[in-house]
Design brief:
single chain; 250 residues; mainly alpha; Cytochrome Bc1 Complex, Chain D, domain 2; two-stranded antiparallel sheet; 6 strands; 51% helix; extended; binds heme C
């Protein structure tokens, strides 16, 4: 028995240790919590997504009419600022790219309806800030989060250019490992936005993409909160009811 317990403890320790070893070798993401009730941010995100991303990426599970209703955008504004590929509000977001795009990038830009769910908001938030100059790549850019990315740095005018420096390569004696995940960037040229404004821009786009991944999230959460409040009230009432029923018996 003692033997078995010992083995169990050892296996558990092993799992825990390798688990944390895995986490160490992964690139660190900047954590981002989507603000699902920040309508203004999601509105800006929708506008910016349409302007900078929808040229290449579709969001085939999201219709313009749904965005308008959820993000409180009037139809005329929707048509003027968001709809470039169609004039029917019932249409989903299609990309403007012809089928030949695969030859341009080596990969068809994927549909982004669900990417906030498959990759997670922190991944997107970090990805959009992690393009850096790399002469070895065909487009002259690479990305620390998606090494060898086929996507050009479409936001360079806003962010400016940056290069990668391994900031703790000299500090620790860990060599390759420090190079791999101890990445930092150094600005090479300024973009039209300040670093803070650029972070806000990326946060807005990420909020919008998180919304796109689950348009009903805000309703789901607010219904959930109401249900919990209702149940708590009911608990209080039933408690007093129980006291009332049992009063004469005790
Ligand atoms: C010029 C075309 C183009 C534009 C514009 C563009 N992308 Fe991309 N994007 C690509 C291509 C091509 C890939 C595939 C990269 C790969 O897998 O190597 C990609 C990949 C991605 C991915 C990774 C998807 C995955 O799960 O692998 C995300 C996220 C993404 N793009 C977001 C954006 C956002 C947000 C914008 C707007 C700010 C944008 N893209 C604008 C071409 C584009």
């Amino acid at each position: 028995m003692k033997h078995m317990l010992m083995r169990f403890a050892l296996t558990l320790a092993g799992v825990l240790l390798t688990g944390s070893a895995f986490a160490n070798s992964e690139l660190e993401l900047q954590s981002f919590r989507p603000e699902y009730s920040n309508i203004a941010s999601m509105q800006r995100g929708a506008r910016d997504y349409m302007a900078y991303c929808s040229g290449c990426h579709s969001m085939k599970y999201l219709r313009f009419s749904r965005i308008a209703a959820d993000l409180q955008i009037p139809e005329d504004e929707l048509k003027a600022n968001l709809m470039f590929t169609t004039d029917k509000v019932g249409e989903p977001i299609k990309s403007a790219l012809p089928a030949a795009s695969e030859q341009w990038f080596g990969r068809v830009p994927p549909d982004l309806s669900l990417v906030a769910r498959s990759r997670g908001p922190s991944w997107i938030y970090t990805y959009l800030q992690s393009f850096y100059l790399d002469e070895t790549r065909p487009l002259g850019v690479n990305n620390t989060v998606l090494p060898g990315a086929a996507m050009p740095n479409v936001l360079w005018e806003l962010q400016g250019w940056q290069k990668k420096v391994a900031h703790d390569a000299a500090a620790g004696g860990e060599g390759a490992k420090a190079e791999h995940h101890g990445t930092a960037f150094e600005s090479v040229s300024q973009g039209s936005l300040s670093p803070e404004e650029y972070k806000q821009f990326v946060a807005d786009v990420t909020n919008f993409m998180d919304y796109a991944g689950e348009p009903g999230k805000r309703d789901r959460i607010s219904t959930g909160i109401k249900v919990i409040i209702y149940l708590v009230l009911l608990l209080v009432l039933t408690y007093f009811l129980k006291k009332e029923f049992w009063r004469d018996i005790h």
